[in-house]
Design brief:
Helix content: 25-40%
Order of helices and strands: HHEEEHEHEHEEHEHEHEHEHEHEEE
Structural class: alpha/beta
Amino acid sequence: MTTNIKRPLALAASLAGAALVTTGALAAEGEKWSYPVEVWDPPFDMASPRKTVDYEPLDKAEKKWDLCVSFPHMKDAYWMAVDYGVVDEAKREGVGMQLVEAGGYTNLNTQISQIEDCVARGADAVIIGAISLDGLNNLVSEIRKKDIPVIYVINGISSPELSAKSLVSFGEMGYKAGEYLAKRHPAGSDPVKVAWFPGPPGAGWVEAGNQGFKEAVKDSAIEIVDTKYGDTGKEVQLKLVEDTLEAYPDIDYIVGTAVTAEAATGLLRSRGLEDQIKVVSYYFTPGVDQGIRRGQILAAPTDSAVIQGRVAIDQAVRILEGKDYLKHVGPALYVIDESNIETFDRSSSLAPDDFRPTFTVE
């Protein structure tokens, strides 16, 4: 995934009100929807100029296409939100969908094998949330030789042979989290210590997020005392946080993945440190939503994960039917904190409370 980490400064004023713009933008489950998104032109370069448009999906597909969707895992509520997006949109447009998940960011070979099986059984298009920035490039090349569209969702791949992207810059997600802290602790104010947990090593979104966060805080009073990488399983992140608290008991902030934030809140509460150490996530989940509402998590940017899943399905159908489509689309980013937690559109970012992991749409 490429990233343009300076871009958020230019967009700050326009995106600050995005929460208000998006409130009420979605229709009820299963109904036609629209949503404001950014479109990169030229596509596939995060540094390209952008314009904001209201994304309008198709009413229905012309035939029951068979779509293969591949996720890194389904271990947290973030990917549950993307699952909800692809499932509900597949149902709404009247297409079939088979979702596979590799079980974690260490399982690249599993993801490759699962996608190969999808293609072998006759999938018409493939939508990939990638484990690795570079590790799927050969596979993508082989799929494209069969004239099968490949759409990237959430996590990017460095292959130039893609058909479309439904994703945002995780560099900007990291930047927005860092910018939030930098505004609280500008240069010249009392120094603060931050432990930073960007996610699984080698994943494109993690490297981008890491770069963005560090860029945002470099001219502030923030010192990053430790950076710890690890899979986004709760046990892994909890152990990383525990190790960091042992090594740096005087830190002021824990910043990282949503799983890090969720694990940290319970640990800090059990140790009586919730007033001493504050928590920030750099993406949004139900646990983060709850943490902000309870005052346990300060803030998190949202990338409207449900919308990214919906758009990827619609892009695939449009490509298969030879219709006009936007090649590179991502919802505008904005930060959720106590000031807007009650007013933003939760259905753009979170699955419904009663939604369960769904792998097949017939």
